[in-house]
């Protein structure tokens, strides 16, 4: 009987492991296809299709994208700065507001919770936001316009609030007995024990800043402040425009030699590559942060 139970348990674990291996392959395989396609010639990709090993190895797509390397690296710098500064400031503001509305002994916590929830359900819209940012805040064509609009998200505030509610109130009470003030309690006690929550929300905020191209399109006119995603978006639009022009007008350009699909794949690699490298370093905090708010002590 014991042997049978051991065999059934082993088979069940093996089945679970095979299932997760299959899911992992399904997640990794598209990335490998994109990477392989980016190193393939346009003619080879159109004639032989996608494969995990480049059929005709070529750097043509990357050479096309790197025709203006100074602008590309400048856009990388802008996006890296905006992501780093926005994530740091966003975490500070989000965690501070979440801590305030998680303290039931704070008299106005219901009012702040309602105001946060109201902004989650209703917004002024794009036109009022554009008028306020450009006409009243005068942030158009500045680096701050790429940071401030995404600085605070109500969804992340309530997510952080769930984490803070799991922290025993006895820690705060003991710190108050020792004479600690609210600011000291927040930075010396709450923040150090909330690293999984901060890493989880920080990743979400960083992804939002890194993948954003909308703010650059609306508010940025200067090339030196163009974000990476918007710069790659413009490259893709230029490729589509050239393809349409050559089809509608008699122009002596060989479309098979101009990267189109391969350039798309190369753009995906350049846009998502850095975040794919950074994510594994925060994975252990991310997993703990996702489960922390759902487990009650």
Can you walk me through this structure?
The protein has helices at residues 2-38, 42-48, 60-65, 69-102, 109-121, 126-136, 154-165, 169-177, 182-190, 195-210, 214-219, 228-248, 261-278, 283-292. The chain has 297 residues and is an all-alpha fold. The protein has 2 domains: 2-38; 61-292, MetI-like (MetI-like fold, Orthogonal Bundle). Helix 4 (69-102) packs across helix 5 (109-121), helix 4 packs across helix 7 and helix 12 runs antiparallel to helix 13 (261-278). The longest helix has 37 residues, at 2-38.
In brief:
By secondary structure, the chain is an all-alpha fold.
Uncertain ranges: 293-297
- Beta strands, count: 0
Largest sheet: none
| CATH architecture descriptor of the largest domain | Orthogonal Bundle
Shape: flat
Coarse structural class: mainly alpha
Q: How many discrete structural domains?
A: 2
Can you lay out the helices and strands and say which pair or pack?
Elements: H1 2-38, H2 42-48, H3 60-65, H4 69-102, H5 109-121, H6 126-136, H7 154-165, H8 169-177, H9 182-190, H10 195-210, H11 214-219, H12 228-248, H13 261-278, H14 283-292
Helix pairs in contact: 1-13, 4-5, 4-7, 4-10, 7-10, 10-14, 12-13
Looking at this protein, list some descriptive labels.
MetI-like fold; 297 residues; disordered C terminus; mainly alpha
């Amino acid at each position: 009987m014991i042997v049978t139970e051991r065999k059934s348990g082993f088979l069940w674990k093996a089945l679970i492991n095979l299932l997760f291996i299959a899911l992992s392959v399904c997640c990794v395989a598209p990335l490998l296809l994109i990477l392989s396609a980016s190193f393939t010639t346009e003619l080879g990709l159109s004639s032989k299709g996608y494969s995990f090993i480049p059929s005709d190895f070529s750097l043509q797509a990357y050479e096309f994208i790197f025709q203006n390397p100074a602008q590309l690296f400048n856009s990388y710098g802008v996006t890296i700065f905006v992501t780093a500064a926005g994530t740091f400031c966003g975490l500070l503001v989000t965690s501070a507001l979440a801590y305030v509305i998680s303290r039931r002994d704070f008299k106005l916590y219901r009012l702040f919770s309602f105001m946060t929830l109201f902004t989650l359900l209703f917004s002024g819209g794009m036109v009022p936001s554009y008028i306020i940012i450009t006409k009243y805040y005068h942030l158009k064509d500045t680096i701050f316009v790429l940071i401030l609009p995404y600085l605070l998200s109500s969804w992340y505030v309530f997510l952080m609030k769930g984490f803070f509610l799991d922290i025993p109130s006895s820690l705060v009470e003991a710190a108050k007995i020792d004479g600690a003030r609210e600011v000291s309690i927040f930075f010396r006690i709450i923040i150090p024990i909330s690293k999984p929550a901060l890493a989880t929300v920080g990743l979400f905020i960083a992804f939002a800043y890194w993948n954003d191209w909308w703010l650059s399109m609306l508010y940025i006119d200067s090339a030196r402040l163009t974000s990476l995603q918007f710069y790659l978006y413009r490259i893709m639009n230029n490729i589509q425009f050239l393809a349409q022009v050559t089809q509608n007008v008699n122009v002596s350009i060989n479309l098979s030699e101009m990267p189109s699909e391969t350039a798309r794949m190369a753009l995906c690699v350049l846009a998502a590559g850095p975040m794919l490298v950074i994510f594994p370093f925060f994975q252990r905090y991310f997993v703990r942060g996702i489960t922390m708010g759902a487990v009650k002590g």
